Amino acid sequence: MFDRYQAGEQAILVHIDFPDENAREDLQEFEMLVSSAGVNALTVITGKRNSPDSKFFVGSGKAGEVAEAVKMFDANIVLFNHSLTPSQEKQLEMLCECRVVDRTTLILDIFAQRARTHEGKLQVELAQLRHMSSRLIRGWTHLERQKGGIGLRGPGETQLETDRRLLRERMTNIRKRLAKVEKQRQQGRRARNRAELPTVSLVGYTNAGKSTLFNSITQAGVYAADQLFATLDPTLRKIEVEEVGRVILADTVGFIRHLPHDLVAAFKATLTETREAELLLHVIDIFDERRTENIEQVEEVLKEIDAGDVPQLLVCNKIDQLEDVEPRIDRDDQGLPVRVWLSAQSGVGIDLLFQALAERLGKKIVKYCLKIPPAYGKFRSVLYRLNCIASEHYDDEGNCVVDVKMPTSEWNKLIKQDEALIEGFIER
């Protein structure tokens, strides 16, 4: 049903500058998207307009220039760095006599190439179906009317209507399957909530270095590459943070300006890990000249998925590409870490990130001094298994005096075993 790119296709790129900031796109980012899709860019046609043309988007003169470039370079596809309406795509394809693909379809195709898990593939397919549902008519202009006569009478619906019905049925089926996957995710979240394990989610603009940082922290071996949307499927790992204990770290899909709404809707189940996290690590490519715009775009998407109010710790990544920048922690007026400067590639500053995480998440730590009588040596071994003993010594009566430090959740589980007894051990 969908036109999928084959690596090595020859493409003409079209980029138009608009005075309106909301309609403006970045040409360098578009070229990276094209490269990530495995398409060979032959030339870039640029221009300026105050507003899109209703028929060709670029105006009749510029459309003619695009058509001439297609013939001159023998291109087989035209890629627009903008969202086109179905009618604009149709008019441009008739003029250029080749496929015309807009920015949204290009991003969807990259997602389709990157999807690895069953859930990821379903989400991408649902987004594609939503996007393509309004474009079905382009493929069936030769079958728009029902035909009469012997052997030509059908079930009473046109081929277009048949396809729309099949498409609706397929979307319904995918939604049901995704609902099952979401139930499984909810069960996993409930289990983590019962264990009171805090979740920290990596977010940021695409290609900011989230997966490289994730691998540096967890040694997970997640695929990381210098290309847009290298990560699509979320990955969860447990890490140990001093004075906090076990923490769930989630690596998520990168964001991009004007992220297609169909994708945001399809990936809402996956992005729940971000929405329900206790802390977001907002990874920023500090070497990127557009970092301020990228931060704004990430904030926009976070608001769209209802994660705008989740506390953030900014991670300024790739400091190894800058001169005279040392790893450090920036703090607010209350002394709370708000920004960490590091390099995920070289590992410089990772220890500072763990220190900042300990300070931001370490509010739920309890410290007690326990006096354990000789008859309760088994309880001491329980504390050792929990790895919570900071120091210990024996008093003159043979009691083991232990300083313990552990997350509140672990302490609550411990005193459930015998609250009265353990309360009696606490030195007041």
TrEMBL record:
Functional description taken from the UniProt entry: GTPase that associates with the 50S ribosomal subunit and may have a role during protein synthesis or ribosome biogenesis.
Binding of Mg(2+), residues: S211, T231
Family classification: Belongs to the TRAFAC class OBG-HflX-like GTPase superfamily. HflX GTPase family.
InterPro entries noted in UniProt: EFG_III/V (IPR035647), G_HFLX_dom (IPR030394), GTP-bd (IPR006073), GTP-bd_M (IPR032305), GTPase_HflX (IPR016496), GTPase_HflX_N (IPR025121), GTPase_HflX_N_sf (IPR042108), P-loop_NTPase (IPR027417)
PROSITE patterns in alphabetical order: G_HFLX (PS51705)
CDD domains in alphabetical order: HflX
Domain Hflx-type G positions: 198-365
Binding residues annotated for GTP, in chain numbering: 204-211, 229-233, 251-254, 317-320, 343-345
Cofactor: Mg(2+)
Subunit structure: Monomer. Associates with the 50S ribosomal subunit.
Coiled-coil features, chain-numbered ranges: 164-191
One MF annotation (Gene Ontology) recorded for this entry: guanosine tetraphosphate binding
Main location: cytoplasm
Pfam short name (any one): GTP-bdg_M
Tagged with keyword Nucleotide-binding: yes
Organism (species): Thalassotalea piscium
UniProt-annotated location(s): Cytoplasm
Signal peptide region: none
Keyword annotations from UniProtKB, A to Z: Coiled coil, Cytoplasm, GTP-binding, Magnesium, Metal-binding, Nucleotide-binding
Protein's name according to its UniProt entry: GTPase HflX
GO CC terms: cytoplasm
